[in-house]
Amino acid sequence: QVQLVESGGGSVQAGGSLRLSCALSGNTHTLNCMGWFREVSGERREGVAAVDPHFGTTYGDSVKGRFTISKDNAKNALYLEINNLQPGDTAMYYCAADSGHCLGSYVMNSQYRGQGTQVTVSS
After folding, report:
1. 36: how many CB neighbours lie within 10 A of its CB?
2. Which of 2, 60, 117, 123 can pair with 26 through a Cys bridge, CB separation 3.0 to 4.6 Å?
């Protein structure tokens, strides 16, 4: 089993930045795919970004350019930096991981996910 705990969300003004963090624990050595997805109003899920030893770093089509994913293997941590936040970025952001391989656009289908961290952007 793998556990994921997100942090770093909050309420920001449009144009601001946030850095989301995800702490991973458990059998992390079994993981290949690690990434982020977001969920709007409990309905629509959108893959944001993923890092994967096979596919490299990939991003969802709608978020390219303002989002940067990174990871720290020594700390078992995953990060998502979001710049120039817009109201349309308001969502619950989830960290996700899978023993299989994945692309950023589809990371919401991963085996494991955290509880999420809320990002709210006001205009």
Report:
1. 32
2. 2
Q: Are 48 and 58 in contact (CB under 8 A)?
A: no
Nearest CA among 103, 116, 87 for reference residue 4: 116
Strands 117-122 and 10-13: parallel
How, if at all, do strands 2-7 and 91-98 pair?
Answer: unpaired
Whole-angstrom Cα distance, residue 92 to residue 109?
16
Q: Supply 42's token pair.
A: 């409990």
**Rounded to a whole number, what is the distance in angstroms from the first to the last CA of the chain?**
40
